Amino acid sequence: MTDFPHVTNAFLFDLDGTLTDTVYQHVLAWKEALDGEGIALSVWRIHRKIGMSGGLFTNMLLRETGLAIDQDLLDRLRRRHAEAYGRLAAGVVPLPGARELLQALTDMGIPWAIGTSGRMETARPALEKLGIDPDRAPVVTRDQVRYAKPDPDLFLAAAARIGVEIGNAFVVGDSIWDMIAAQRARALGIGLLSGGYGQEELERAGALRVYEDPADMLRHLDEVGGRR
């Protein structure tokens, strides 16, 4: 059995839509990628899949269109998405209170880490806008695990990265995929509305508490054990 230090609380954050205002840049980037392959899909359908792993995301989207799926097409879509997102990344900004929330946890000595379904090539611009060096901070990306959300691998790896037992961690995310992954990891989920999902959707997926954005969560941090 792994000997974790005694930690009564820790926070594992999603990135897009949770700490950075990047959900809709990803939606538009996927729309451009799909259009580039002649695949017509409504923007709202794309939005509903943001937050899950890129491979599962493209599989589900292509299944909805009824098109044949092959690895070459999936690879092209991922490349097109990364290129399109790279052009949109200049507009990436942290969500209100994101930096302050992470700093408050650091000041209180509460461990935190980030687990994102994005690969490092798309996660890095958002992390940099947060002032986070992914080579030094506890960040786990899709590149580093076998499966991404809704599987629990990202958050299990993030907990291990900071040396805490997953049962002592809250998973903070903006999508139902984050909440499902939290439940499968046996962690408590905190939902944020800043990614476009509604409160009832997040609660049905397992969120213990739901806040508007990181700033709102920071104001209510004592409700989820955020104290010295």
UniProtKB/TrEMBL annotation:
GO terms for cellular component: cytosol. PANTHER family: BLL8046 PROTEIN, PHOSPHOGLYCOLATE PHOSPHATASE. It comes from the Bacteria. It comes from Azospirillum thiophilum. Keywords: Hydrolase. This is HAD family hydrolase. One of its GO terms (molecular function) is phosphoglycolate phosphatase activity. The keyword Manganese does not apply. Gene3D superfamilies: HAD superfamily/HAD-like, Putative phosphatase, domain 2. GO terms for biological process: DNA repair. InterPro entries: HAD-like_hydrolase_sf, HAD-like_sf, HAD-SF_hydro_IA, HAD_sf, PGP-like_dom2.
